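Example: Mitochondria-eating protein.
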Amino acid sequence: MFVKFKIKPGNENMVDCDGMINTGLKRTAHNCDISPIVESTTDCVITFAKDKKLDVGKYIVNELKEYISSCARLAWGMVVQTPPLTLEYGNKPKYMPNQHELSGIQRESITSSTVLTYIWPVLREQDGGRVMCKGILTPERAITKRGTSFWK
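Written out as C-alpha cells, the predicted fold is:
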C-alpha cells in the first residue's frame, strides 16, 4: 500500500518528510503485511520446541501463529508511534522502584545475591525514555523451584 501526500505548489521546501512518513505508517500500521515476521518467528519457535523434544501438533501451531501474529501486530504498532514505545527486559535486572514492581519478594529482602527475573517488561517511550508502565520482577528461584526451568 502506498501513502499519497499532497504538497501545495511553492511549499515544497516546507514539507516535513519524516513527519509525513511517520503519519502514513501510523495510519496504515493495521494494514501492514506482517506475515513474513509471523512465519519466521513460528519456524524459530517450532525448531526450539523440537530441539527440546516437545510435541508440536497442528492445533498448537495454528494457535501459536495466531498468538505470534497478535504480538507482531502490537509490536509494529508500538514501533511506528511517535515517540516509539519499547519493551525493556533482560537477564538479571536490578530493581529500581521508579521502573519496577516486585512480586513474591519484599523490597527489604533483596540482597546483592538476589537474582531477579522479569515476569512483565517495562513499557517506555523510546529507549531509555519515560516509563509508561512499570515492569514486574520476581526472584528467579520462584520460577525454577518446581524443577528445571523450561528455557534452560
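The chain has two domains: 1-82, 84-152.
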